[in-house]
Design goal:
This protein has 80 residues and is mostly beta strands. The protein is built from 2 helices and 7 strands. The chain has helices at 47-50, 70-75, and strands spanning 7-12, 17-22, 27-31, 54-56, 59-62, 66-68, 78-79. The longest helix has 6 residues, at 70-75. The radius of gyration is 12 Å and the shape is globular.
Length: 80
């Protein structure tokens, strides 16, 4: 398991994918779709909410204190 890596950049993409950069220089893609039916992520089904993704404290966040742990983002993403 890699060390905990901070997210340094996020770009919301079509079809609920996130383009991510990590502090080790890796660029990865994360599919948010598997989370959309689960609380508290249902609001991300709305494109205007999903597109508000930003980096805060080393991870991806959205308004209303919604975030995904950086280790989840890394472990469940694929190399870009």
């Amino acid at each position: 398991m890699p060390d905990l890596l901070d997210v340094t950049m996020v770009k919301p993409m079509q079809d609920h994918w996130l383009a991510l950069s990590f502090e080790n220089g890796e660029n990865r893609l994360f599919d948010v779709k598997p989370l959309l039916s689960k609380k508290p992520f249902q609001s991300l089904q709305q494109a205007h909410v999903f597109e508000q993704a930003y980096v805060f404290a080393g991870t991806v966040s959205w308004p209303e204190n919604l975030d995904i742990a950086p280790e989840t983002l890394y472990e469940r993403s694929v190399a870009a």
